[in-house]
Amino acid sequence: MRTLQVDLGERSYPIIIGSHLLGQGDLLRPYIAGRQVAIVTNSTVAPLYLERLQQALGGYAVISIVLPDGEAFKDWQHLQLIFDGLLQARHDRRTTLIALGGGVVGDMTGFAAACYQRGVDFIQVPTTLLSQVDSSVGGKTGINHPLGKNMVGAFYQPKAVLIDAATLQTLPARELSAGLAEVIKYGLICDAPFLDWLEQNIVALRELQPAALIEAIERSCAAKARVVAADERESGLRATLNLGHTFGHAIETHMGYGKWLHGEAVAAGTLMAAQMSHRLGWLTASERDCVARLLIAAGLPVVPPAEMTAEDFLQHMAVDKKVLDGQLRLVLLKAMGEACVTADYPASLLQDVLLTDYAAIVAQL
Amino acid sequence: MRTLQVDLGERSYPIIIGSHLLGQGDLLRPYIAGRQVAIVTNSTVAPLYLERLQQALGGYAVISIVLPDGEAFKDWQHLQLIFDGLLQARHDRRTTLIALGGGVVGDMTGFAAACYQRGVDFIQVPTTLLSQVDSSVGGKTGINHPLGKNMVGAFYQPKAVLIDAATLQTLPARELSAGLAEVIKYGLICDAPFLDWLEQNIVALRELQPAALIEAIERSCAAKARVVAADERESGLRATLNLGHTFGHAIETHMGYGKWLHGEAVAAGTLMAAQMSHRLGWLTASERDCVARLLIAAGLPVVPPAEMTAEDFLQHMAVDKKVLDGQLRLVLLKAMGEACVTADYPASLLQDVLLTDYAAIVAQL
């Protein structure tokens, strides 16, 4: 078991990483202030892990709220189910919410905790690779709006994050790959040696070898914790974590939530960002190809949907949260392992990148 | 014009109080960071003051969002209208929301600002006495849930509060009285000399004499600012601001939002709290009667609805946010001008107080 610390003053909290931690209630007890606990999970995770977690929480008044599984349900109506459950069970301000599941469960539970009675405690117990290395750490919570992803939410930090890598053994291969998109992202934006490690260990990761998984999770969480500690509310550095996300969100929104997994859309978006960086002269064609090869080796799609036009991308990107006073800022790569955020690029170049034939790039690898 | 400061470190902000301030855009400019402004108001206030405020904001890209008027619409569906308006106009993270209206508009706009893109700036421009002396200051925002009032929300401070007492000239007499319930509250919980002043000036206030109104607003805001600065998130002292509110919320919830105005329910709740304090030996019968007389002089009802049983009260109060680990804490009066928060009272005494014949108390005044 390893513990990292997210350093945010009085809002600091630990990330506890290991295998088979879910049944160890003593790991959670220090972070539960009252007697009431509400476990929020979804219909896929509940049959696998809910009972084990409930049993580990002997002595508390525990309720569970089971949401339908999927990004399509990350909306107000389903958030309301959490409030309904808490109010029906008369949970008060000292209740602790526990998010048991992937990114959707974590984002919704965190936002519910931020809003319920104007703020109660919550703990993240992420069960997908994507949520373990990304969404469970850093306090971004929220729901989608028909006009944009994550448009309604809060910065709200958990009291602790408990990562049980053993839960990945039941994760569908496609979702594991989606998580690897974010793992690769950390290498690209701030940790070039980690990129080398990933190239050597991508097979072990896809084979779910525990030591490789824990190493990848720890290095990813360490990178995220550093960035979040330096810039909690995304005024600068933290925006680099969105490499590939502006393009990716456009894909997700356009295709309808849930058709492309978040990590899949990010993978395609990452290659678009790499291509833009290449066109700006920051990455060589060979480095761009390296990015594409690693994403493909992780089992990810890198070619955006054929039906999406440049106009489609531009329209969706115009409502991105990274737009400030009308300027679209993009996260790009200055070099392998070094990201920057910039609005200083010719509009025609962005147009070219949106029109690039990514299938052709992949074909020549 | 007078300016008070709410002292909350980096979240500090001014309360600017005066007459005919609404058309003075220069008062707001220092608190607007970007180019986009969204004025949120309601269908009653819009015809009276929206144009004046819009004209004062020349140079900004201003949209307005007009909600239906009333506590009955303080729900998620109507909050959604604010997000719809912001997204349709592509407002980004640097937008500033301005709440122009009463407590419902302020609470909803503040909560929308807390959640939109995980938090944008907002300014309170309260136009009712109740919102000027209470809800616009202190950062409590939120919406109602069918199972409880203000159950979903956030602590989120405005950048500034601009109070134009001249807007009270168009306020219905019933709503002015409702605001006076909160003004009287400040005297009761922490400012005995203010109680004396109120007894002498209650007629002037109901006649809307500007000097009296500004004095009452300033003393109320000063009291609230002191309490909020000492306890932003209501871990202790701030709870005293809820004198009469636990009983009052039960009345509002039971009767259906909007039938009793918030201030009216608080007035009846305040007499119940005074009676409880009397039964505990903290107030004399004459002091309790003094509370009743002042509330009545302010034009307020002090007898709870005849149809509400003690059981009704207990059931609604059990989901109050002041319940902690099953214990219902009440705000009571140790003396005139001194409040306390306590869960240390016999349950039978609460029962007696709920069953007290308040009409009889009023009859003997």
Task: Specify the CATH class of the largest domain in chain A.
Answer: Mainly Alpha
Strand order of the largest sheet of chain A: 1-2-9-6-5-3-4
In the CATH hierarchy, the third-tier topology of the largest domain in chain A is known as Dehydroquinate synthase-like, alpha domain
What's the helix-strand series of chain A? Answer: EEEHEHEHEHEEEHHHHHHHEEEEHH
Low-pLDDT residue spans of chain A: none
The profile of the biggest β sheet of chain A is: 7 strands, mixed
The CATH architecture of the largest domain in chain A is Up-down Bundle
- CATH superfamily label of the largest domain in chain A: Dehydroquinate synthase-like - alpha domain
Gyration radius of chain A, rounded: 20 Å
Terminus-to-terminus distance of chain A: 40 Å
Mean pLDDT across every amino acid position of chain A: 95
Helix content of chain A: 40-55%
Compute the number of structural domains of chain A: 2
- Could you give the count of β-strands of chain A? 13
Relative strand content of chain A: 15-25%
From the spread of the alpha carbons, the general shape of chain A counts as globular
**Backbone structural class of chain A:** alpha/beta
Please work out how many helical segments of chain A DSSP would assign. Answer: 13
Biggest chain pair interface: A-B, 39 and 39 residues
Q: How would you describe the oligomerization state of the chains in this entry?
A: homodimer
Cofactor (chains A, B): NAD(+); Co(2+); Zn(2+)
Family (chains A, B): Belongs to the sugar phosphate cyclases superfamily. Dehydroquinate synthase family.
Catalytic activity (chains A, B): 7-phospho-2-dehydro-3-deoxy-D-arabino-heptonate = 3-dehydroquinate + phosphate
Function (chains A, B): Catalyzes the conversion of 3-deoxy-D-arabino-heptulosonate 7-phosphate (DAHP) to dehydroquinate (DHQ).
